[in-house]
Amino acid sequence: MNDVTRDIWARWRGTTKARIGLGRSGDALPTAPLLEFQAAHSRARDAVHGTADFDAIAAALQPHPTIRVRSQAGDRATYLRRPDLGRKLDPVCELRPGVYDLVLVIADGLSARAVDHHAASVAKLCIEKLPDWRIGPVVLAEQARVALGDEVGERLNAATVAVLIGERPGLSVADSLGIYLTWAPRRGRADSERNCISNIHAAGMSHAAASDLLVWLLREAKRRQLTGINLKVDASAVLPPTS
User: pTM, whole model, 2 decimals?
Assistant: First the structure.
């Protein structure tokens, strides 16, 4: 193969999901990468505007109880325009306080597809790995942002809240799930007071690894009574040893 036809980018494209060395046809992209880019854009739009199947998620979580809530954003268009409303519970939502070490919130966020694909599995693994914890009902939150978990946790009297939420889709992954953990949740908590686990999807972090990391962070948060920038992950304690 001569230098004219040899694809010098082929080996690098196999190591990244980034779009590199796509070539050109005249002054435009070749047809195949152009069509793939348009398809990725469509998948991202569908993820943002889609609706999470909370009935299926509730069924998958059985026999663990669930509660349905929604934010003050009345519809998807309002949710996208008004992030502030997505951080506040609708006043009609009733939450009875209990005595909980942990409340899990599954929120649609910006990717319903991510929630449908990953949230129930990660939540179930976390519950199974914390048999000694008092875990409240899983809260299924519609049109929700991360900070909605602060009010949910506060009203349920939870020591910690973990929000499993669809992350903003990109043009390489449209179904990435994130987890945001907060100790002593209450309205007004800052983002610096949370820990985040991100990139949970088929080509990223697995459900098992995400639940292992979440459980480690939860136990450390309870022991030290804090989350956020002062709670650093000890990779050697969480990740399996490499050969």
Answer: 0.85
All domains in the chain, ordered by first residue: 54-238 (3.40.50.11240)
DSSP per position, the chain: --TTT--TTHHHHTT-SS------BTTB--HHHHHHHHHHHHHHHHHHH----HHHHHHHHTTS-EEEEEBS--SHHHHHH-TTGGGSB-TT-------EEEEEEEE-TT-HHHIIIIIHHHHHHHHHT-TTS-B-PEEEEES--TTHHHHHHHHHTEEEEEEEEEPPP-SS-S--EEEEEEES--TT--GGGEEEEEEESTTSB-HHHHHHHHHHHHHHHHHHT--STT----HHHHSPPP-
Query: Tens digit of pLDDT for each residue in 14-71?
Result: 777 777 677 777 777 777 776 777 776 677 776 677 889 999 999 999 999 999 999 9
